[in-house]
Write a structure and sequence with these properties.
mainly alpha, Serine Threonine Protein Phosphatase 5, Tetratricopeptide repeat, 27 helices, about 0% strand
Length: about 475
């Protein structure tokens, strides 16, 4: 039976360390070979005893003056000890002896970056890339890409990844990374051409199909994106990110049933996520299956209970089913979590108004106006509520404020006219109505919606008829 190889390695290392101690003490019969010195330095590095590693490296270099490998090892230790200038000097010496060691360029890059000399790192790596081929060239291109990433040369990152894929079309790391950088740099057309070339040579490369699809998707070419995703999942049936992105593409095309199908596949294949449940809920919402929408929104909220938006979306499904009290209960939760969302207060105001609780509704609509004073929606809801609650004096005050904040929006001239009619200021009301119709004839519909019985007023009917004749001339 063979001895344990790990025990053999430990024994060999113990013997090497004895030889090393003898050499340090100046015993003349002790001799350590170059590769054995490497092992000793590595041993101390693994123990993270950097001072001993440096001591061993210095002794090694004294024994093998012309060893570029040991000079590089010494520089590696100095880099860990943050002795950057000394490390650079050792690397420069190593470069005079041997320019063909890739570690030389990677370590020198690290030194330049530590000294905040990014330009020198770039020049060095670009030179090194021209000296190497195959895997070593690819490794240097990844190194260069990282340098550009650190210093925000994002288009250059894309260029490096593109060069890698031209050399190694099936390099998974490059394929994963270029998908992100395509989207980040907006170079989708270029990515499409690159991945089409890869697919021509390697038609079963699912990552290339995925990246092609993602590039189409970023250009809003959703049908083409879906076709490419289909190829990706045909090659790899468990490619959950392809199903996820395909779901988004179907949603963009408003093909909600298809989106539900592929998003449910994501849940089957991957760890459940709140965002996927929410997306499925959204799809059911859009096809008016509000019960199922709530089911998935609730699943999402259980995973992310602090997300007020989910309770708001549940509230909207109840609102669409005219279940005002259930809607208000969900909005209570959303508003407690996030009071500064005007859309929450707006919907709550609508609920309260539909429940006949006008004073409560006014409070919520006032909150919307306070948060967004230049937005028409809040003012419109507040004034409409005051009008329906028959708070006409307050409504007049608020409509004047709305006209000021919205720079005379015609809608509020119509509302002011309706309020003045209810306050029996008929002459003023007629003036406001004519002004509104001059500015925006289409707004008449909103005027009639808020005050349908006004059509029984002959003076109003006469104005409408006059404007109709004027329009037909």
């Amino acid at each position: 039976m063979k001895e344990n190889p790990f025990r053999e390695d430990r024994e060999q290392m113990r013997e090497l360390l004895k030889l090393y101690e003898n050499l340090k003490q100046g015993r003349s019969h002790s001799f350590i070979e170059e590769d054995s010195f490497e092992k000793i330095i590595n041993y101390f590095e693994e123990k993270e005893d950097w001072n001993k590693a440096l001591e061993a490296a210095r002794l090694a270099v004294q024994q093998f003056v012309y060893s570029s490998v040991l000079l590089i090892k010494k520089a590696e230790v100095l880099l860990e000890l943050r002795s950057y200038k000394e490390a650079l000097a050792e690397l420069n010496q190593a470069e005079l002896l041997d320019q063909g060691n890739i570690d030389l360029y990677i370590l020198k890059t690290d030194v330049y970056l530590a000294l905040d000399q990014q330009d020198k790192a770039v020049v060095l790596l670009e030179k090194a890339i021209s000296l190497f081929q195959g895997e070593e060239r690819v490794e240097l291109l990844f190194e260069l890409a990282d340098v550009y990433d650190d210093y925000e040369g994002f288009d250059k990152v894309f260029d490096c990844l593109k060069l890698i894929l031209e050399d190694e079309p099936n390099n998974e790391e490059a394929l994963y990374k270029i998908c992100f950088w395509t989207d980040f740099t907006g170079r989708s057309e270029e990515s499409i051409r690159l991945h089409q070339r890869i697919i021509d040579d390697f038609p079963y490369n699912e990552l290339a199909w995925f990246n092609l699809a993602a590039a189409y998707q970023s250009l809003k070419l959703y049908e083409k994106a879906i076709d490419a995703y289909q190829f990706a999942i045909t090659i790899d049936e468990k490619f959950d990110f392809a199903y996820r992105n395909m779901g988004d593409a179907y949603i963009r095309l408003k093909k909600f049933k298809e989106a539900i199908e592929v998003l449910e596949k994501v849940i089957e294949l991957a760890k459940p996520e709140s965002v996927i449940y929410e997306a499925i809920g959204h799809c059911y919402d859009r096809v008016h299956n509000y019960a199922q929408a709530r089911f998935y929104y609730r699943k999402a909220s259980h995973m992310n209970p602090g997300e007020s938006k989910l309770f708001y979306k549940i509230a909207c499904t109840y609102f669409n089913e005219q279940q005002w009290e259930s809607c208000a209960r969900q909005l209570d939760i959303a508003i407690k979590q996030h009071q500064l969302k005007p859309e929450y207060s707006l919907l709550m105001g609508e609920c309260k108004m539909l429940l006949g609780l006008h004073k409560e509704a006014i409070q919520y609509f006032s909150n919307v106006v306070r948060l967004r004073p230049r937005n028409t929606t809040g003012w419109e809801a507040l004034i409409r509520c005051l009008f329906k609650g028959e708070f006409f004096e307050e409504a007049l005050e608020q409509v004047n404020a709305a006209l000021q904040f919205t720079q005379g929006k015609p809608l509020f001239l119509y509302y002011k006219s309706a309020i003045l009619f209810r306050l029996q200021h008929t002459a003023k009301a007629l003036v406001q109505l004519e002004m509104a119709m001059e500015k925006s004839p289409k707004g008449l519909k909103r005027f009639i919606e808020i005050y349908p019985s006004i059509l029984q007023n002959q003076q109003v009917v006469d104005i409408l008829a006059r404007f109709k004749r004027k329009k037909s001339i």
